[in-house]
Amino acid sequence: MANANNETPCCIGDRLEYGSKGRELKVGGVDMYLATPKTPTKKGIVVYIDIYGWQMPNTRYMVDMIANNGYVAILPDAFQGAEPWSPDRDKSTFLEWKKTKDPNKIHTVADAAVGYLQQECGVDQLGCVGFCWGGRAVHACLVDRKDFKCGVAFYGIANKDDEKLGLLNAPGLFIFGENDPVIPLDQVETLKTELKKSCKVDYHVTVYEGMPHGFAHRKKEENDKDAAAIDGARLEMLKWLEKYM
Q1: How far is Cα 94 from Cα 10, in angstroms, rounded to an integer?
Q2: Can you give the residue ranges of the Dienelactone hydrolase domain (predicted)?
Q3: pTM for the full model?
Q4: Which residues are catalytic, by number?
């Protein structure tokens, strides 16, 4: 898939000035950000980072949003202490940087996050959400794991052979922007074809008209069209989680 082999990083977009409402902790040596709802719950969501890392305020904003809607939400540092990508870096070094950051190898970090949610937070229903790199990690989890009841992948397709893309073990929602240079529409069509051919669980693919990569968490609402797409994608995520958890 071209998104897996993209030679340049996605744009950071609009970085939020956001202080976050959760807390940081270490689980098995992995840094994590945890946000909890006001009312106790047994439902937990593992959120996977984009290339800009676990301290990116935009992603923490989404974690807090999920928690405010009734889930214990945890955001692990999937890069396990390695430096995330920075917009200040030389783009020619991106391929070298990403060699050690394979979303298909998310499972050790996922195990740590899941274990914490289950053992320390009393969670017995699990879902996963991810953005960009993390969207690919969500897709990988839906294909490779059976502990998540559902997943939502924002602008990410797993680095799998095409015939494996549709072999989901749990319901998956895939959200893309129409004008995403990282994931061209032909890749989205390949995903839809493989899901239709192979998937035995519920799935849905939404492409938001005119939207770029990262729109749901890294784009300002500059006009009514932006606001409708951003709010629509976030609401779609929440409804999917509610439906299956």
Answers
A1: 10
A2: 31-244
A3: 0.94
A4: 132, 180, 213
